[in-house]
Amino acid sequence: MYGIKNCDTIKKARKWLDEKGIGYTFHDYKKDGTNEALFQDWLSSLGWEAVINRRGTTWRKLSEEQKSSMDNSSALAVMMENPSIIKRPLLEHEGKRILGFKAEEYESAFK
User: Fold this and answer.
1) What is the pLDDT of residues 27-69, one digit of tens each?
2) Which end of the chain is more exposed for a tag (fewer CB within 10 A), N or C?
């Protein structure tokens, strides 16, 4: 699981996993750093529209030009500079990637 420790959605996802007794490794972008190759892989497989959180304050702080011209390449640069813009959590499990937290999605993934 990738994200930022103090994020409320991360806390909900981690609590759900803990309550179900499901082991996981947590990578905190702020504490553990970023990984350009990993971010590029996410953008290639999921697309910037899915990976970038367009409802958060980090998105709102971008210029209108940055927002309107966003593509995978510019998204990568923004993600490297400020990983808070990445939708959280990003969970990798058995070759699947789940963005965000919905208990139903996690239930289905961990059957």
Assistant:
1) 999 899 999 999 999 999 999 999 999 999 999 999 999 999 9
2) C
Burial class (CB in 10 A: 0-12, 13-18, 19+), 75: buried
- Identify the active-site residue in 3, 4, 5, 7: 7
**Tally of domains within the chain:** 1
Q: Would you call 7 a catalytic residue per the annotation?
A: yes
Amino acid code (one letter) for 12: K
Q: Read off the CATH number of the domain in which 72 is found.
A: 3.40.30.10
